[in-house]
């Protein structure tokens, strides 16, 4: 082994690297039997905590691959600029967009926050509004039912509402939010105030929306552990699916079936709030196209989400360049971003063995939360994904769709997901959300300010678990929250 030469003093970075090297064997040994304190298995970040906890690579990444991770990170954080410029590799923004960078929505790789109800001028900086209309023809209805057509965009405003634009092009409008409140009384006398949001699109620049428009607010989710979720086999999701509730437990999770662009076939969806994307690569490229307005191998339209009704938008200069596969984000870039997104490490838990945390874990399972938030998976060996290969992980999700009731419904189907169904979100890292960004919020639209509020919004298949939380003694509820905050 090559050792560093003696030095009279060491930089903080050098010291942290040395500590990580010394701790690595401990993580590996613990992971051979599975350790819930290491949610990402050998990939788990075990270094210092704080606001940058979600910014680290898989701990088992080879030294040679760290450059790819850093290059992918640079592209993830790149601020794209308007075309044309002399910097051809970084131009092509928009013409309409929601953010100039991936990191603009996924703040420090954490979750986003909703529109500020007191500052509509700020825009929807880490969330967006998805738009669609019902199928208009028999052929569209058939394609929608078959999974080939996940949604049908608004004919003028497209599939997403963009409240930012490049110079000379009008943004589509502004997004505002207002809340109504409801108080929920818990056993022991505690009252929790829930906020129910209403999102509106104002100052519409291109005329009215379609009369049958369906709108779904979507908060940017955290980036940790995505490659590990991708490595869960389809067969595992199929085995866990129980659409008719054949086992009679009141839980009827099912997988979404969506169109895989790269393979031109129907596949199981696992990414996005409604599991609308089959692969992480397609999820990434879809975000480049719709969130930033950039062309990619899977989405080569240089005008992003502009429609034919937005003529100034479709005729604006773009960054497509023959030198880069005729695209703005070519395949080398998308591959690097894919490697980066696959390898943002879940952080290790620091108090997994605390007495209240362990008691809360028991309560979590007893009231039925683990029926959807599946704690543990043993991943298969995969030569193509060495960091994720053979790991034992603890993400607390089944990646399936569940009916969450009318309270959380967006009434907007996506592929085969109904307007009341949502994919079970992973819970790893949820206790760090507001450490990463104090503005971070919970649920698909950020209505919940706390984890407890998020629980109290659960309905549908999760209603019995929610009701159990409202009835339990304050001491048990505190233990349940201690467990969730430990993740």
Categorize the overall geometry. Answer: globular
Total helices: the number is 14
Using the coordinates shown, work out and report the CATH topology of one domain. Cytochrome Bc1 Complex, Chain D, domain 2
Biggest sheet: strand arrangement: 3-2-7
Provide the CATH architecture of one domain: Orthogonal Bundle
Element pattern in H and E: HHEHEHEEEEEHHEEHHHHEEEEHHHH
CATH classification class of one domain = Mainly Alpha
Q: Mind telling me the C-alpha Rg?
A: 23 Å
How far the N terminus sits from the C terminus, by CA atoms, comes to: 36 Å
Low-confidence stretches: 1-31
Structure notes:
There is one protein chain. This protein is an alpha+beta fold. It has a domain at 23-70 and 343-486: Cytochrome Bc1 Complex, Chain D, domain 2. Helix content is 27%, strand content 13%. It is built from 14 helices and 13 strands. The protein has helices at 12-31, 66-77, 102-105, 138-146, 226-230, 234-240, 280-292, 311-314, 331-342, 355-366, 433-436, 451-456, 463-471, 474-486; strands at residues 96-97, 127-132, 160-161, 164-165, 174-185, 191-202, 214-219, 256-260, 265-269, 377-378, 392-393, 401-403, 421-423. It has a three-stranded antiparallel β-sheet with strand order 3-2-7, with no helix packed on it. Strands 1-4 form a two-stranded antiparallel sheet. It is globular. The relative contact order is 0.17. The model is unreliable at 1-31 (pLDDT under 50).
Q: Characteristics of this structure?
A:
487 residues; alpha+beta; Cytochrome Bc1 Complex, Chain D, domain 2; two-stranded antiparallel sheet; 14 helices; 13 strands; 27% helix
């Amino acid at each position: 082994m090559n050792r560093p030469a003696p030095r009279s003093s060491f930089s903080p970075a050098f010291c942290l690297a040395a500590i990580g090297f010394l701790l690595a064997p401990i993580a590996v040994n613990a992971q051979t039997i599975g350790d819930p304190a290491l949610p990402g298995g050998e990939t788990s970040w075990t270094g210092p905590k704080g606001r940058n906890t979600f910014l680290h690579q898989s701990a088992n990444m080879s030294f040679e691959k760290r450059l790819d991770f850093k290059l992918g990170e640079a592209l993830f954080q790149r601020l794209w600029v308007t075309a044309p410029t002399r910097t051809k590799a970084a131009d092509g923004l928009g013409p309409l967009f929601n953010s100039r960078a991936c990191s603009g929505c996924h703040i420090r790789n954490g979750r986003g926050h909703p529109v500020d109800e007191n500052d509509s001028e700020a825009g929807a900086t880490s969330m967006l509004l998805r738009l669609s209309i019902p199928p208009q023809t028999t052929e569209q209805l058939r394609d929608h039912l078959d999974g080939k057509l996940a949604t049908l965009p608004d004919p003028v405003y497209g599939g997403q509402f963009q409240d930012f634009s490049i110079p000379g092009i009008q943004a589509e409008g502004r997004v505002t939010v207002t809340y109504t409140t409801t108080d929920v009384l818990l056993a022991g006398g505690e009252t929790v105030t829930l906020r129910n949001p209403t999102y509106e699109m104002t100052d519409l620049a291109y005329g009215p929306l379609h009369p049958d428009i369906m709108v779904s607010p979507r908060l940017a989710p955290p980036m940790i552990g995505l490659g590990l979720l991708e490595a869960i086999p389809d067969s595992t999701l199929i085995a866990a699916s129980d659409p008719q509730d054949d086992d009679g437990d009141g839980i009827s999770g099912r997988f979404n079936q969506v169109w895989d662009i790269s393979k031109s076939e129907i596949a199981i969806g696992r990414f996005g709030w409604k599991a609308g994307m089959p692969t992480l690569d397609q999820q990434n490229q879809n975000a480049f196209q719709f969130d930033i307005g950039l062309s990619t191998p899977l989405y080569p339209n240089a005008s992003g989400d502009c429609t034919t009704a937005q003529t100034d938008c479709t005729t604006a200069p773009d960054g497509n360049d023959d030198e880069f596969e005729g695209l703005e984000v070519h395949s080398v870039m998308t591959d690097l971003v894919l490697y980066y997104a696959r390898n943002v490490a879940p952080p290790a838990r620091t108090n997994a063995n605390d007495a209240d945390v362990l008691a809360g874990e028991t309560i979590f399972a007893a009231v039925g939360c683990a029926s959807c938030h599946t704690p543990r998976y043993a991943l298969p060996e995969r030569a193509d994904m060495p960091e994720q290969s053979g790991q034992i992980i603890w993400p607390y999700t089944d990646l399936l769709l569940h009916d969450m009731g009318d309270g959380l419904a967006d009434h907007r189907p996506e592929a085969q997901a109904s307007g009341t169904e949502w994919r079970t979100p992973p819970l790893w890292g949820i206790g760090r959300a507001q450490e990463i960004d104090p503005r971070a919020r919970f649920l698909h639209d950020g209505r919940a300010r706390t984890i407890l509020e998020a629980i109290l919004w659960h309905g549908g298949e999760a209603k019995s678990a929610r009701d159990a939380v409202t009835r339990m003694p304050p001491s048990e509820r505190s233990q349940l929250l201690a467990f969730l905050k430990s993740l």
